[in-house]
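Quick review question:
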């Protein structure tokens, strides 16, 4: 993967967000975010045009569905990272994408994004 590839991180757990950020940067990616809520993530998409994204499905009292819809509209590849994969499978209106179950490692998320 070329350097300067931008990955948006949407994650409301600050410790896991830092792990993802460190892992992605170590692998040579430029990190956009992390964002912990829908509004911040949507603004980052508009401001930074990420090449791919890792989305936590549950963001406190929100879900990442509006972010996933925007990324799908822009044809930006993304995946969901969630501790509750079954909840995501039944989510109304959620664009289909790969699901990586938590707990996981940044390397696992990167491999899933690259394939």
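Suggested answer, residue by residue:
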């Amino acid at each position: 993967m070329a350097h300067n590839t931008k990955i948006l991180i949407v994650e409301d757990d600050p410790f896991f967000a830092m792990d993802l950020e460190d892992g992605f940067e170590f692998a040579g990616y430029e990190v956009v975010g992390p964002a912990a809520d829908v509004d911040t993530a949507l603004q980052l998409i508009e401001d930074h045009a990420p090449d791919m994204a890792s989305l936590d499905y549950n963001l406190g009292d929100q879900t990442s569905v509006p972010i996933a819809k925007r990324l799908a509209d822009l044809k930006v590849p993304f995946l969901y990272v969630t501790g509750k994969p079954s909840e995501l499978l039944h989510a109304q209106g959620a664009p289909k994408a790969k699901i990586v179950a938590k707990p996981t490692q940044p390397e696992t998320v990167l491999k899933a994004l690259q394939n």
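Why it works: The longest helix spans residues 14-26. The beta strands are 6-10, 30-35, 52-56, 58-59, 62-63, 78-82, 98-101.
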